[in-house]
Amino acid sequence: MLSGRLGLERARIPHADRHGLIWLDRGRLEVEDGCLRFVTTGSDAMAAGDYQIPYHTISIVLLGPGSSVTHDALRLLARHGCALAAIGDGAVRFYTAPPLMPDTSALARAQVRRWADTKQRMEVARAMYAMRFGEIVRTRDIAVLRGQEGARIKRAYALAAERHGIAWGGRRYDRENPEAGDLANQAINHAGAAMTAAASVAVAAVGAIPQLGFVHEDSGQSFVLDIADLYRHDVLLDIAFSAVREARAAGAAPVERLVRKRAALLFRQRSVIPGMIDRIKTLLMPGQEGEVIADAGAGAGSAAESRRAP
């Protein structure tokens, strides 16, 4: 692709035409002859080489450990409305994301409308409960819903521990000292941090408002926590308890490292972030999400066009 050819340097393809996320790590993101390229030494997900990145057709670049980015690359991404986030390995940490300005404010406006209306806010909260537990609750009292959620989660903890052969004495969490709990509780804390990072990526990718939650209220990332909790009863507990089981083996690594490794694997295997993106759209714009919002999660993975170095 030559600079100026066919006017592509000025082209702006609407997010509705884009096909997802691209994961890059252990390399350098730069611009050469008007093209965005990524030169990498290689990783588990990408062979070593020189790749041309089709920034016109993606919504967000997830830049992992061991990577750097040039000023020209940031300028090019900003000019074409492609976001960039710095993440931990496999998106188990979310470090930063420049402001994402989608082509439309429809989803953010839908979120505000549903959040501001008491009845609609409760409907979204009930829909979240149904997504998690496969059950439509009749209550329209958020306190009752939270109580039912707490009871179901306690049961989920016990079942997951039994499934993984882990002794379980109950959930104990000290905000002042997260490492004070037993190994299982520590693993859940670390898995929760990883899941929150993944939800941050999803919320940023669609341009939703992190502060406006439907179950959570006080946190500055209440909606992020809402989305992360959709995966607490299954994916999060699988990550945590499988890491505990591995940590108890002779010579195993610290549980936090094992949690991160397991989370990175399951996030990719189960398409967790694309799934979060789809659920956000379903919750905020049921029946019309595909018409106006970018399908940011439809093609997570490698969207790069290989341009191998000689």
Task: Tell me about this structure.
With 310 residues, the protein is α/β, with parallel strands linked by helices. 45% of the residues lie in helices and 12% in strands. The chain has helices at residues 71-79, 106-116, 118-133, 142-164, 183-206, 222-229, 232-247, 255-269, 272-284, 289-292; strands at 21-24, 27-32, 35-40, 49-52, 60-63, 68-69, 83-87, 94-96, 305-306. Helix 3 runs parallel beside helix 4 (142-164) and helix 5 (183-206) crosses helix 7. The longest helix is centred in the middle third of the chain and has 24 residues, at 183-206. The model is unreliable at 1-11 and 291-310 (pLDDT under 50).
Distance between the termini: 18 Å
Which CATH architecture of the largest domain? Up-down Bundle
Structural class: alpha/beta
Please tell me the overall pLDDT.
83
Strand portion, in percent? 5-15%
Strand line-up across the major sheet:
6-2-3-4-9
Runs with pLDDT <50, length 5+? 1-11, 291-310
Number of helical segments with 4 or more residues: 10
Helix percentage range: 40-55%
Q: What gyration radius follows from the Cα positions, in whole Å?
A: 21 Å
Q: Give the domain tally.
A: 2
CATH class wording of the largest domain: Mainly Alpha
Q: Could you give a short account of the major beta sheet? A: 5 strands, mixed
The CATH homologous superfamily name of the largest domain equals: CRISPR-associated endonuclease Cas1, C-terminal domain
Q: Would you give the CATH topology of the largest domain?
A: Four Helix Bundle (Hemerythrin (Met), subunit A)
Instruction: Please tell me what the overall shape is.
Output: flat
Give the total of beta strands: 9
Order of helices and strands: EEEEEEHEEHHHHHHHHHE
Subunit structure: Homodimer, forms a heterotetramer with a Cas2 homodimer.
Pfam family, one: Cas_Cas1
InterPro entries: Cas1, CRISPR-assoc_Cas1, CRISPR-assoc_Cas1_C, CRISPR-assoc_Cas1_ECOLI, CRISPR-assoc_Cas1_N
GO molecular function, one term: DNA endonuclease activity
